[in-house]
């Protein structure tokens, strides 16, 4: 004898049969919306690639790092030689440095902005073609792994940022913590707008070892100038002292003449007094 199907099961089967078309339609509708959204994003991306700002094209060369990590003197001089017409921006940092860790994402963000614009040729803020007069290469050097190199580059405080450019050598060097990242942005903006015309200083050797002789000459020249200035000051002081001494001597002579005059007057008064005393009688007459 066949068993009858429970009523609850029969109801559930009926509900599934009724809801299945609606669920299928909902799934199709959701899928259609997702496809339409993806299509719109693709079209928008194509429009941006054809003339407006986009960061997607930055990844067209996936093998090219945003910031190149350098180890050793050869790697450092190699990147300078590879980019003689670009400003090589080098960040010096250390793993133990808290300020360096805080600075790292800010430096990466700045590098992303400039490298993206160089890659796309489009200003990310305005959507207009880039008008930058100078391109940049961003790199970094870890202090503990490159102590000798950092010493030869004159690194004394961290985090630090140096700018190097071809035959100009080092054009900028400054301490740049997370709170002073605006200084990095300002210098990048200045060189970006005016190129190397923004550099008003003298060309500086890349390595501190190369400036030893120059520093000695500069120090000697400076000491000579300081000595000359001190001698001139001393000469003026001596002249002033001699003039003062002459004035004192003249004053002394005047005082001596005055003293002689006073002495002569006093002598005359004493003589007059003595004569008057001699003419007086020796006794006093008493009238009767």
Q: Kindly state the mean pLDDT as a whole number?
A: 75
What structural class results from the helix and strand content? Answer: alpha/beta
Secondary structure tally, helices: 6
What's the shape? rod-shaped
**What's the helical proportion of residues?**
55-70%
Described by strand count, sense and barrel closure, the largest sheet is: 5 strands, mixed
Name the helix and strand elements from N-terminus to C-terminus, one letter apiece: HEHEHEHEEHH
Number of β-strand runs = 5
Strand content: 5-15%
Q: Tell me the radius of gyration.
A: 47 Å
Distance between the termini: 199 Å
Q: For the largest beta sheet, what order do the strands appear in spatially?
A: 1-3-2-4-5
Low-confidence parts: 26-32, 34-60, 211-219, 283-288
Give short descriptive properties of this protein:
alpha/beta, 6 helices, five-stranded mixed β-sheet
Task: Map the helices and strands.
Elements: H1 7-49, E1 68-70, H2 73-82, E2 87-93, H3 98-120, E3 136-142, H4 147-152, E4 160-165, E5 169-175, H5 181-194, H6 212-278
Parallel strand pairs: 1-3, 2-3
Antiparallel strand pairs: 2-4, 4-5
Can you tell me about this structure?
The protein is of the alpha/beta class and 288 residues long. It is built from 6 helices and 5 strands, in the order αβαβαβαββαα. It has helices at 7-49, 73-82, 98-120, 147-152, 181-194, 212-278, and strands at 68-70, 87-93, 136-142, 160-165, 169-175. Strands 1-3-2-4-5 form a 5-stranded mixed beta sheet, sandwiched between helices. The longest helix is centred in the last third of the chain and has 67 residues, at 212-278. It is rod-shaped, with a radius of gyration of 47 Å. It starts with 6 loop residues before the first helix and ends in a 10-residue tail after the last helix. 16% of the residues are buried.
């Amino acid at each position: 004898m066949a068993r009858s199907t429970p009523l609850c099961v029969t109801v559930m089967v009926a509900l599934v049969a009724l809801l299945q078309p609606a669920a299928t339609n909902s799934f199709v509708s959701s899928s259609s919306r997702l496809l339409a959204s993806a299509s719109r994003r693709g079209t928008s991306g194509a429009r941006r690639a054809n003339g407006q700002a986009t960061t997607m094209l930055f990844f067209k060369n996936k093998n090219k790092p945003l910031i190149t990590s350098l180890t050793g003197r050869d790697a450092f001089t190699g990147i300078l030689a590879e980019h003689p017409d670009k400003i090589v921006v080098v960040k010096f940092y250390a793993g133990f440095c808290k300020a360096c860790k805080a600075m790292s994402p800010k430096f990466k963000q700045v590098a992303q902005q400039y490298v993206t614009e160089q890659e796309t040729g489009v200003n990310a803020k305005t959507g207009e073609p880039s008008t930058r007069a100078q391109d940049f290469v961003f790199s970094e050097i870890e202090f503990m792994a490159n102590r000798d190199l950092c010493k030869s580059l004159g690194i004394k405080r961290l985090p630090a940022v140096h700018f190097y450019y071809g035959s100009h050598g080092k054009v900028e060097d400054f301490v740049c913590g997370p709170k002073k990242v605006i200084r990095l942005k300002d210098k990048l903006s200045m060189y970006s707008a005016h190129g190397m015309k923004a550099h008003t200083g003298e060309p500086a050797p890349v390595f501190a070892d190369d400036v030893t002789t120059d520093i000695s000459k500069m120090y000697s020249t400076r000491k000579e100038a300081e000595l000359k200035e001190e001698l001139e000051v001393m000469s003026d002081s001596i002249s002033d002292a001699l003039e003062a001494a002459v004035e004192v001597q003249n004053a002394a002579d005047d005082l001596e003449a005055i003293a002689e005059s006073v002495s002569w007057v006093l002598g005359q008064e004493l003589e007059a007094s003595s004569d008057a005393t001699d003419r007086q009688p020796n006794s006093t007459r008493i009238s009767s």
